[in-house]
Amino acid sequence: MVKRFIPFILILVLVSFPLSGCYYFSAKNEIKDAEKLLTELKGTGGEKQVPYEYCSAETFLEAAKLEFSHNDFKIAKGFASRSKSASQTGLTEVKKK
User: Fold this and answer.
1) Which are the contacts of 77, defined by CB distance < 8 A and separation ≥ 6?
2) Do residues 57 and 37 make contact, with C-beta atoms less than 8 angstroms apart?
3) How many angstroms separate the CA atoms of 97 and 63, rounded?
4) pTM recorded for the entire structure
């Protein structure tokens, strides 16, 4: 019985470690991309021209960083995605003007 149990646990551990890191790196990259877009929006005068999108992007990015620091990587990735979306919308609006 024990001989069957040990390989099962080893396989479970080996499979779970790579899967648990997926959200970590995914969220980290998403936050990094959101920061770049927010910086670009700020550089094009987004604070004054599209304040709603800028404020939304900034707030979502802060929430993403907070959730990331609390090890809630899936939620952090979601907030970072929303920040990216708000920044992209703001950049599109700034380029139209």
Assistant:
1) 23, 26, 27, 30, 64
2) yes
3) 29
4) 0.78
| Backbone conformation region of residue 72, classed left if phi is above 0, alpha if psi is from -120 to 50, else beta | beta
Kindly write down the DSSP assignment for every residue of 40-79, as one continuous string.
Answer: HHHHTTHHHH-HHHHHHHHHHHHHHHHHHHTT-HHHHHHH
C-alpha span between 27 and 71 (Å, rounded): 10
51 belongs to a structural domain: yes
Contact 64, 80 (CB under 8 A): yes
When divided into structural domains, the chain yields a total of 1
Mean pLDDT across the chain: 89
Residue 54's domain comprises: 22-96
